[in-house]
Every structure is written in structure tokens, then in C-alpha cells.
Amino acid sequence: MVDVTRRFFDSDLWYSFTRSPVIIVSAFVTLLFVGSAVFAPLVAPNDPFDLASIDLLDSFIPPIWQDGGDSRFLLGTDDQGRGIFSTIIYGSRISLGVGFASVLFAMVLGISLGLISGYFGGAVDAVIMRAADVQLTFPAILIALLIDGLARAVLPRDFHSEVWFYVLVLAIGLSFWVQYARTVRGSAMVERNKEYVQAARVIGIPPVLIMLRHVLPNVMGPVLVIATINLAIAVITEATLSFLGVGVPLTSPSLGTLIRVGNDFLFSGEWWITIFPGLALAVLVLAVNLLGDWLRDALNPKLR
Q1: Which CATH number characterizes residue 147's domain?
Q2: Considering its fold, how many domains does the chain have in total?
Q3: What's the rounded Cα separation, in Å, for the pair 110 and 116?
Q4: pLDDT tens for residues 146-193?
Q5: Which helix (H) or strand (E) holds 253?
Q6: Do the domain assignments include residue 17?
Q7: Looking at the domain assignment, is residue 151 inside a domain?
Q8: In terms of residue numbers, what domain contains 175?
Q9: Interval 60-112: pLDDT, tens
Q10: Which parts of the chain fold into alpha helices (H)?
């Protein structure tokens, strides 16, 4: 463990990270959002989902620095009397939860199909890649809307309100698997013809173990870069679906739902209800995108 830690701190990746103030700030902001989301009950001043602590008389309170502000609510309150700061923390928890789960699902599906397609080739490769080509002709948000709409049409309304998280993960994840599959397929096609893979075949190692032990480790660098960038896209996709009213239910608002609710009061003067969740979403996505761009350049041997 000590040797692994020492090699990491002596690596070019760590050197590149410490020499970029922008990336350090981006990493700090990302960790701040993730930490606040994980420990939301401890960090948030109040629980926006605790009906016993919500008072409608506290609705539409402006931020603390404006006239009429309340020290209990740093960024003001919404139409239900919930603190905007607390709802942003809990909303980030939902948005990041959906984002991480969607990326993980897309990674597992895309890597599996990419390994199978690149290792076996032939008709299997043709079928998987043609399916990927067809999906690439449709925008990711359209695919997510289609899958979410089908789930709403097939599932009973009461049941859908209980499984909305899994429906969103499925909808967003299925729109992202192609990038992983195409990247892994290209690397697998190169690796399968190398001598160590052919030697593994000769001694009778099953294809599944060859793909997992020998081929997969050689493609994890590009996959991690794609996953980092896709996390930001997944958060935006979830926010878009929730803003359109087909994502997270109003009883469990994410950042997109908060922006949607606040949009109804934007022109009546209660600007803070939608502006602050929108800023939080923009900062989170920007920080994750900057990390993804840095990771792509840092892992590119041609730029070292």
C-alpha cells in the first residue's frame, strides 16, 4: 500500500494535477458538492422534506443580505417555505446519485458489449456496432425521453412514483453506452491479436477471463475519461428531464426540478428560487467538465 501511494505521488498524473490551480479548484468544488450530497442531513441547516419543520408563512423570504431576509435561510426560501440552501444540498444529492448510477450502468453495459464485439468480431461485432450506429443518430435527451415515456405508459402511476430513480438511471444510461462500447471495441481489436492474448488462448484460458484480465486493463484509461465527462452530461440530462416534468417527482426535487419550480416565480420578483439552483448546477457541471478535460490530456501519452 505504501509503495502504491509513493508511486502515485511520484507519477506524471499527480505532477500535472499540482501544477494546475484551475484543476485543483475544480477538484475541490467537485469534492465539496459530493461531500455535501453524501452528508446532506449533517450539512443542511434544515430538512426541506420534513413537513413538521416547514411553515408556509416562511415562503418567499429573500436572501439574508436583502431587506426582509431571515438569518435561518441564507439564500432565502421557495414557495413552500423551504430553505433554498438546504434544497440545493438535497437536490445535488439526487442529481449526483442519478448521475453516478447512470454512468456506472452505461460503463458496465458499454464495456461488456465493446469487449464482446472487439474480441469475437464477425456477425456479433456487426450486430452490436449497427445498433450503436442507429442510436448515434438520435440525441441522448431524445432517447432518455423515449425510455422514460415508455416506462410511464407501461408502469402504473403509483408504481412509477416508487421506481422513478431506476427509470431515470435506465433512460440516461442507455443513451451513453455507445461511447464506451466503441472505445473498448477498438482497443479490444488491437489487443486480441497480440502474442500474450494468443498465448492465453493456447493454454486454455476461457475468453471471459482473457477479456477481463488482459484486455480490459488496457482500455481503462480512456474509459475513465469518458466516465468523468459523462457524469456532467448525465447531471445535465437529469436536470433537463426534471425541468420538463418527466424526471424526478416534485416530492423529491433535484436541481432541475428546483429550477423548474423557481421559473414560475422568476418574473414576479422571487429570482433567488431559480437563480441559485441554476448557478449550483452550472458550477458543478463546469468543475466536472474541467476535471474530465484535464484527465483526458494527462492520460494522453502524446501530450506528455
Answers
A1: 1.10.3720.10
A2: 1
A3: 10
A4: 877 777 777 777 666 677 788 888 888 888 888 888 888 887 887 777
A5: none
A6: no
A7: yes
A8: 32-45+75-303
A9: 888 888 887 778 888 888 878 788 888 888 888 888 888 899 999 999 999 88
A10: 2-9, 12-18, 21-38, 40-43, 84-120, 122-136, 140-154, 157-160, 164-174, 177-191, 195-202, 207-210, 220-243, 255-263, 272-298
